[in-house]
Amino acid sequence: MNKLLVLLLILAFPPGGWAQDAAGDAEAGDLQPDMTTTAEDDAFLFEDEDILEVWDPIEPVNRVFFWVNDKLYFYLLKPVARGYRWAVPEPWRVGVKNFFSNLAAPVRIINAGLQGKFGDAGNEITRFAVNTTIGIGGFFDTAKDHFELRMKDEDTGQTMGHYGVGPGPYLVLPILGPSNLRDGVGMFVDNRMNLLYYISEGRTYYGLRVYDKINDLSLDKDTYEGIKKDALDPYLFVRDAFMQYRQNKIEN
User: Fold this and answer.
1) Per-residue pLDDT at 252
2) What 8-state DSSP symbol labels residue 21?
3) Which segments of the chain does DSSP mark as H helices, in order?
4) 238, 16 Cβ separation under 8 angstroms
5) What is the pLDDT of residue 31?
6) What's the burial of 230, exposed, middle or buried (CB within 10 Å: 0-12/13-18/19+)?
7) Are 100 and 219 in contact (CB under 8 A)?
8) H or E segment to which residue 149 belongs
9) N or C: fewer beta carbons within 10 Å in the chain?
10) Angle, in degrees to the nearest 10, between helices 105-114 and 118-133
Protein backbone atom coordinates (compact mmCIF):
# COMPACT_ATOMS: atom_id res chain seq x y z
CA MET A 1 0.00 0.00 0.00
CA ASN A 2 2.87 2.39 0.87
CA LYS A 3 4.54 1.71 -2.49
CA LEU A 4 1.27 2.38 -4.29
CA LEU A 5 0.86 5.70 -2.50
CA VAL A 6 4.40 6.74 -3.40
CA LEU A 7 3.84 5.74 -7.03
CA LEU A 8 0.68 7.81 -7.19
CA LEU A 9 2.46 10.85 -5.80
CA ILE A 10 5.70 10.80 -7.77
CA LEU A 11 4.39 13.18 -10.37
CA ALA A 12 1.79 14.78 -8.15
CA PHE A 13 0.21 17.72 -9.94
CA PRO A 14 -2.75 19.56 -8.49
CA PRO A 15 -5.87 19.68 -10.70
CA GLY A 16 -4.92 23.19 -11.80
CA GLY A 17 -1.26 22.26 -12.08
CA TRP A 18 -1.18 21.92 -15.84
CA ALA A 19 1.11 24.89 -16.18
CA GLN A 20 3.85 23.31 -14.19
CA ASP A 21 4.91 22.14 -17.61
CA ALA A 22 5.69 25.80 -18.13
CA ALA A 23 8.22 26.09 -15.34
CA GLY A 24 10.77 26.98 -17.96
CA ASP A 25 8.86 30.09 -18.99
CA ALA A 26 8.00 31.21 -15.48
CA GLU A 27 10.46 32.88 -13.16
CA ALA A 28 11.60 30.93 -10.11
CA GLY A 29 8.82 31.09 -7.58
CA ASP A 30 6.08 31.04 -10.19
CA LEU A 31 4.37 27.88 -11.35
CA GLN A 32 2.36 29.20 -14.24
CA PRO A 33 2.47 31.99 -16.76
CA ASP A 34 0.82 34.80 -14.77
CA MET A 35 -0.25 32.60 -11.89
CA THR A 36 -1.71 35.52 -9.96
CA THR A 37 -4.62 36.07 -12.34
CA THR A 38 -8.11 34.93 -11.54
CA ALA A 39 -10.12 32.61 -13.73
CA GLU A 40 -12.06 35.64 -14.96
CA ASP A 41 -8.81 37.38 -15.92
CA ASP A 42 -7.53 34.27 -17.65
CA ALA A 43 -10.72 34.04 -19.70
CA PHE A 44 -9.74 37.31 -21.36
CA LEU A 45 -6.35 35.86 -22.25
CA PHE A 46 -8.11 33.38 -24.53
CA GLU A 47 -10.87 35.70 -25.73
CA ASP A 48 -8.94 36.92 -28.76
CA GLU A 49 -7.40 33.56 -29.59
CA ASP A 50 -8.82 31.07 -32.02
CA ILE A 51 -10.82 28.85 -29.71
CA LEU A 52 -9.75 25.24 -30.09
CA GLU A 53 -12.33 22.56 -30.50
CA VAL A 54 -11.35 20.06 -27.84
CA TRP A 55 -11.90 16.37 -28.52
CA ASP A 56 -13.16 15.00 -25.22
CA PRO A 57 -14.72 11.60 -26.04
CA ILE A 58 -14.54 10.26 -22.49
CA GLU A 59 -15.73 13.37 -20.67
CA PRO A 60 -17.76 11.44 -18.03
CA VAL A 61 -14.65 9.46 -17.05
CA ASN A 62 -12.47 12.56 -17.15
CA ARG A 63 -14.89 14.35 -14.84
CA VAL A 64 -14.64 11.51 -12.32
CA PHE A 65 -10.85 11.79 -12.27
CA PHE A 66 -11.14 15.57 -12.09
CA TRP A 67 -13.30 15.19 -8.97
CA VAL A 68 -10.81 12.75 -7.42
CA ASN A 69 -7.89 15.06 -8.15
CA ASP A 70 -9.86 17.97 -6.72
CA LYS A 71 -10.37 16.18 -3.40
CA LEU A 72 -6.76 15.03 -3.29
CA TYR A 73 -5.62 18.60 -3.89
CA PHE A 74 -7.72 20.17 -1.15
CA TYR A 75 -7.40 17.44 1.48
CA LEU A 76 -3.81 16.28 1.03
CA LEU A 77 -1.50 18.10 -1.37
CA LYS A 78 -2.31 21.71 -0.55
CA PRO A 79 -2.37 21.26 3.26
CA VAL A 80 1.05 19.57 3.10
CA ALA A 81 2.37 22.34 0.83
CA ARG A 82 1.05 25.06 3.15
CA GLY A 83 2.72 23.46 6.14
CA TYR A 84 5.96 23.24 4.19
CA ARG A 85 5.56 26.87 3.11
CA TRP A 86 5.19 27.92 6.75
CA ALA A 87 8.24 25.94 7.87
CA VAL A 88 10.68 26.67 5.03
CA PRO A 89 11.78 30.18 3.96
CA GLU A 90 10.92 31.16 0.40
CA PRO A 91 14.54 31.66 -0.76
CA TRP A 92 15.24 28.01 0.04
CA ARG A 93 12.10 26.86 -1.79
CA VAL A 94 13.02 28.94 -4.83
CA GLY A 95 16.49 27.42 -4.74
CA VAL A 96 15.02 23.91 -4.62
CA LYS A 97 12.87 24.75 -7.63
CA ASN A 98 15.97 25.98 -9.48
CA PHE A 99 17.85 22.80 -8.57
CA PHE A 100 15.22 20.44 -9.98
CA SER A 101 14.72 22.64 -13.03
CA ASN A 102 18.46 22.49 -13.72
CA LEU A 103 18.38 18.68 -13.64
CA ALA A 104 15.68 18.81 -16.35
CA ALA A 105 17.93 20.83 -18.69
CA PRO A 106 18.49 17.86 -21.07
CA VAL A 107 14.74 17.82 -21.77
CA ARG A 108 14.90 21.39 -22.99
CA ILE A 109 18.23 21.01 -24.79
CA ILE A 110 17.26 17.90 -26.74
CA ASN A 111 13.78 19.09 -27.68
CA ALA A 112 14.96 22.54 -28.74
CA GLY A 113 17.52 20.85 -30.99
CA LEU A 114 14.97 18.43 -32.42
CA GLN A 115 12.78 21.39 -33.37
CA GLY A 116 15.65 23.15 -35.08
CA LYS A 117 15.85 25.84 -32.42
CA PHE A 118 19.61 25.62 -32.14
CA GLY A 119 19.95 29.04 -30.54
CA ASP A 120 17.60 27.98 -27.75
CA ALA A 121 19.46 24.68 -27.38
CA GLY A 122 22.73 26.58 -27.05
CA ASN A 123 21.12 28.90 -24.54
CA GLU A 124 20.07 25.92 -22.42
CA ILE A 125 23.51 24.29 -22.65
CA THR A 126 25.10 27.53 -21.46
CA ARG A 127 22.54 27.92 -18.69
CA PHE A 128 23.19 24.37 -17.50
CA ALA A 129 26.97 24.91 -17.44
CA VAL A 130 26.74 28.23 -15.61
CA ASN A 131 24.11 27.18 -13.08
CA THR A 132 25.73 23.82 -12.33
CA THR A 133 29.07 25.48 -11.58
CA ILE A 134 28.69 29.09 -10.47
CA GLY A 135 25.10 28.48 -9.41
CA ILE A 136 26.17 25.69 -7.02
CA GLY A 137 24.52 22.70 -8.62
CA GLY A 138 21.66 24.79 -9.99
CA PHE A 139 20.44 26.05 -6.61
CA PHE A 140 20.92 29.60 -7.90
CA ASP A 141 19.79 30.72 -11.36
CA THR A 142 23.01 32.61 -11.97
CA ALA A 143 22.58 32.43 -15.74
CA LYS A 144 19.41 34.51 -15.54
CA ASP A 145 20.32 36.76 -12.64
CA HIS A 146 23.77 37.77 -13.89
CA PHE A 147 23.90 36.93 -17.60
CA GLU A 148 20.27 37.51 -18.68
CA LEU A 149 20.01 33.97 -20.04
CA ARG A 150 16.39 33.02 -19.53
CA MET A 151 15.05 29.51 -19.72
CA LYS A 152 13.67 28.29 -23.06
CA ASP A 153 10.99 25.77 -22.20
CA GLU A 154 10.67 22.86 -24.62
CA ASP A 155 9.40 19.32 -24.09
CA THR A 156 8.65 16.19 -26.08
CA GLY A 157 4.95 16.98 -26.39
CA GLN A 158 5.85 20.27 -28.04
CA THR A 159 8.32 18.53 -30.35
CA MET A 160 5.69 16.04 -31.50
CA GLY A 161 3.24 18.89 -32.04
CA HIS A 162 5.91 20.79 -34.00
CA TYR A 163 6.05 17.89 -36.46
CA GLY A 164 2.31 17.69 -36.86
CA VAL A 165 1.29 15.12 -34.27
CA GLY A 166 -2.17 16.04 -33.07
CA PRO A 167 -3.07 16.17 -29.37
CA GLY A 168 -5.44 13.21 -29.55
CA PRO A 169 -8.21 12.88 -26.99
CA TYR A 170 -8.23 15.07 -23.92
CA LEU A 171 -7.37 13.16 -20.76
CA VAL A 172 -7.55 13.87 -17.07
CA LEU A 173 -4.93 11.64 -15.52
CA PRO A 174 -5.31 10.46 -11.93
CA ILE A 175 -3.02 12.60 -9.78
CA LEU A 176 -1.30 14.13 -12.83
CA GLY A 177 -4.22 16.29 -13.93
CA PRO A 178 -5.09 17.60 -17.42
CA SER A 179 -3.26 16.20 -20.42
CA ASN A 180 -3.88 14.60 -23.78
CA LEU A 181 -2.59 11.48 -25.48
CA ARG A 182 0.34 13.23 -27.17
CA ASP A 183 1.48 15.10 -24.08
CA GLY A 184 0.99 12.06 -21.88
CA VAL A 185 3.42 10.09 -24.04
CA GLY A 186 5.73 13.10 -24.09
CA MET A 187 5.66 13.31 -20.30
CA PHE A 188 6.89 9.72 -20.05
CA VAL A 189 9.76 10.39 -22.49
CA ASP A 190 10.70 13.62 -20.68
CA ASN A 191 11.03 11.74 -17.41
CA ARG A 192 13.67 9.53 -19.01
CA MET A 193 15.64 12.58 -20.15
CA ASN A 194 15.66 14.15 -16.70
CA LEU A 195 18.98 13.72 -14.90
CA LEU A 196 17.11 13.03 -11.68
CA TYR A 197 16.12 9.68 -13.18
CA TYR A 198 19.79 8.67 -13.39
CA ILE A 199 21.24 10.07 -10.16
CA SER A 200 18.64 8.50 -7.89
CA GLU A 201 16.74 5.26 -7.83
CA GLY A 202 13.98 3.41 -6.06
CA ARG A 203 12.51 5.11 -3.03
CA THR A 204 14.98 7.98 -3.24
CA TYR A 205 13.83 8.84 -6.76
CA TYR A 206 10.16 8.72 -5.83
CA GLY A 207 10.75 10.71 -2.68
CA LEU A 208 12.57 13.44 -4.60
CA ARG A 209 9.76 13.63 -7.14
CA VAL A 210 7.24 14.07 -4.36
CA TYR A 211 9.40 16.71 -2.71
CA ASP A 212 9.82 18.57 -6.01
CA LYS A 213 6.06 18.77 -6.55
CA ILE A 214 5.24 19.74 -2.98
CA ASN A 215 7.90 22.44 -3.18
CA ASP A 216 6.41 23.74 -6.45
CA LEU A 217 2.95 23.76 -4.95
CA SER A 218 4.20 25.71 -1.92
CA LEU A 219 5.14 28.53 -4.30
CA ASP A 220 1.73 28.58 -5.97
CA LYS A 221 -0.54 31.57 -5.35
CA ASP A 222 -3.73 29.53 -4.90
CA THR A 223 -4.39 29.48 -8.64
CA TYR A 224 -6.74 26.52 -8.56
CA GLU A 225 -8.72 28.07 -5.72
CA GLY A 226 -9.27 31.10 -7.95
CA ILE A 227 -10.53 28.89 -10.77
CA LYS A 228 -12.92 27.10 -8.43
CA LYS A 229 -14.24 30.42 -7.19
CA ASP A 230 -14.69 32.23 -10.49
CA ALA A 231 -15.36 29.59 -13.15
CA LEU A 232 -18.91 28.39 -13.72
CA ASP A 233 -17.56 24.95 -14.64
CA PRO A 234 -13.96 24.47 -13.45
CA TYR A 235 -13.62 21.27 -15.48
CA LEU A 236 -14.37 23.03 -18.77
CA PHE A 237 -12.24 26.03 -17.88
CA VAL A 238 -9.20 23.91 -17.02
CA ARG A 239 -9.70 21.72 -20.09
CA ASP A 240 -10.00 24.57 -22.58
CA ALA A 241 -7.27 26.68 -20.97
CA PHE A 242 -4.86 23.75 -20.88
CA MET A 243 -5.43 22.81 -24.52
CA GLN A 244 -5.12 26.44 -25.68
CA TYR A 245 -2.00 26.89 -23.60
CA ARG A 246 -0.33 23.81 -25.06
CA GLN A 247 -1.27 24.85 -28.61
CA ASN A 248 0.29 28.28 -28.01
CA LYS A 249 3.47 26.62 -26.70
CA ILE A 250 3.75 24.54 -29.88
CA GLU A 251 3.15 27.51 -32.17
CA ASN A 252 5.70 29.66 -30.37
Assistant:
1) 85
2) G
3) 2-9, 39-47, 59-72, 78-87, 90-103, 105-114, 118-133, 142-147, 156-162, 181-193, 196-199, 202-218, 223-230, 234-251
4) yes
5) 35
6) middle
7) no
8) none
9) N
10) 160
Each domain of the chain, given as residue ranges in start order, spans 2-251
Collapsing DSSP to helix, strand or coil, 173 comes out as strand
Going by their DSSP bridges, the two strands 170-173 and 177-180 should be labelled as antiparallel
Q: How far is CA 4 from CA 17, 44, 70, 186, 206, in A?
A: 22, 40, 19, 23, 11
Question: Strand pairing partners for 178?
Answer: 172
Q: Is the pLDDT of residue 167 over 90?
A: yes
Residue 15 φ then ψ, to 5°: -55, -35
- Regarding pTM above 0.70, the answer is yes
List, for residues 169-226, the tens digit of each pLDDT value. Answer: 999 999 889 999 999 999 999 999 999 999 998 889 889 998 999 999 999 988 999 9
Q: Which of the four pLDDT bands, split at 50, 70 and 90, describes residue 50?
A: low
Give the mean pLDDT of 68-88.
96
Percent of the chain with pLDDT over 70: 80
- Round to whole Å and give the CA distance between 166 and 182: 7
Rounded Cα gap, residues 110 and 114, in angstroms: 6
